Amino acid sequence: MENIYVIEYIDAIQVLDSRGDPTVEAIVKTKKGIGRAISPSGASRSSFEAYELRDGDPKIYKGRSVLRAVDNIRRYVAPALVGLDSRMQRDIDQKLIQIDGTPNKSRLGGNATTAVSLANLKAAADTAGMPLYAYIGGLSAREIPVPMMNLINGGAHAGNELSFQEFLIVPTGFDSFSEALRAGVEVYKTLKDLLKEKYGKSSINVGDEGGFAPPMRSIYEALDMLEKAISKSGYSCGDDIYLALDIAASQIYRDGFYIVDDKRLSKGEMIDLIVDLSSRYPLLSIEDPLEENDLEGFSDLRKRLGKTVVVGDDLLSTNKERLRKAIEAGAVGGAIMKINQAGTFTEAMDFAQEAMRSGVIVITSHRSGDTEDTSISHIAIGLKTQLVKMGAPARGERTSKYNEILRIEHYLGGEARYMRIR
Ligand code: PGA
Ligand code: ZN
User: What average pLDDT score do residues 316-332 get?
Assistant: First the structure.
């Protein structure tokens, strides 16, 4: 009998991400299905991520074009994968790793491997006639993740002076994703009014992830403002809605010190600051509180924080070995999963499952440079990760992902279950 899952054709093109930077889109066709996926791109990348291959010619897209990555897919990946069964995702991802042959995917480019790996996953699901989340997670995939919504942008994501990268709200106390999203949007709108009133209308311009980028200078100011927006919207902060932070501390680490609100803090002072923040605000989690090599610092901090979850993003870089070491050191209670940090779906999935087996909460995450691609909405539900990070409820590359979750929740109807975090 004819195998309809066999890959017949693979191609790639250069498209744009939300910052106007070129990125890779891959297309995989089987006999009866098609998958198309686009690699996202981070601005605050760790040194341990899969390598993002860019052409570097300053005359073309200011050095940011990805034509070599596209060409690598056509020249090396397509001939090796055509003829394989698209359902053999692990073998296909292994083949990508093998063709690349480097420890960080620098030959093919992590942007090339990510796009192909996801396009293949989608092609297999399409061939099976199944939505992607169900193809990944089967009949039990019916739990809808809690969104961590990045309402105030700073750091590498905004043209303001805020030292921390992300100030988030986490609507946990609701019965469904759509109710939680509604609350998040109401807080976003209230925040907009409050910012305009206090700082004028230039303060409501948005950053890379759709959150506001106000001219604040202090992290306390940002957290106070979020608390105010939550209560003014009629919700209880620390009950219906939690706060969360992504400090992205590697970005503010210079010569052994952390630069926060114009002050130079030693590691000890940075830890004291974070402990103070967690005692003053209902913070569900704090991501990358220290720079990406300081495993010991993460463990020390974790011992001093009560319920606030310490999350590793750059620290772990969606890398199973780094996760294992972090778990052994007791360094994290939460882990960010970004497919393009790993460079293939299988590696990211293995990372997430390893984390969950050890009781570590997993957060499926977008990148600050993202696109209309909605793979992560399906992946989060398919893999049953507890949380998702998809930015503010604004800008198409963010809302496309929220909207896809709304569609899945609607489709599941009474079967859908909103994740319980606390
Ligand atoms: P990035 O930031 O996509 O710019 O790396 C996201 C994050 O740090 O969580
Ligand atoms: Zn982060």
Answer: 98
What number does the ligand 1 atom closest to the CA of 165 have?
A: 8
CB 23 within 8 A of CB 73: no
Instruction: Assess whether the C-beta atom of 248 lies below 6 angstroms from ligand 1.
Output: yes
Q: What's the domain count of the chain?
A: 2
**CATH number, domain at 105?**
3.30.390.10
- From 149, 245, 285, 313, give the residue whose CB has the most ligand 1 atoms within 8 Å, as the site to mutate: 313
Range of the domain at 163: 138-418
Question: Residue 362 pLDDT more than 80?
Answer: yes
Question: Last residue of a domain, which of 129, 154, 188?
Answer: 129
The continuous run of DSSP H or E covering 242 comes out as strand 241-246
Residues 123 and 146 placed together within one structural domain of the fold = no
Q: What is the pLDDT of residues 11-40, one digit of tens each?
A: 999 999 999 999 999 999 999 999 999 999
390 lines ligand 1 (CB under 6 A): no
Rounded Cα gap, residues 208 and 389, in angstroms: 13
Report the distance separating Cα 323 and Cα 198, nearest Å. 43
pTM of the model: 0.98
Instruction: Inform me whether the pLDDT recorded for 254 exceeds 90.
Output: yes
Establish if 343 belongs to a structural domain: yes
DSSP letter string over 310-345? EEESTTTTT-HHHHHHHHHTT--SEEEE-HHHHSSH
- 307 by DSSP, 3-state: which? coil
**pLDDT over threshold 90, residue 279:** yes
Q: What percent of the chain has pLDDT over 90?
A: 99
| Cα distance between residue 342 and residue 348, in whole Å | 6
**pLDDT for 294 beyond 80:** yes
Residue 186 a catalytic site member: no
On whether residue 367 sits in a domain, the answer given is yes
Joined tokens for residue 16 = 């744009």
Q: Above 90 in pLDDT, residue 1? A: no
pLDDT score recorded for residue 422: 77
209 assigned to active site:
yes
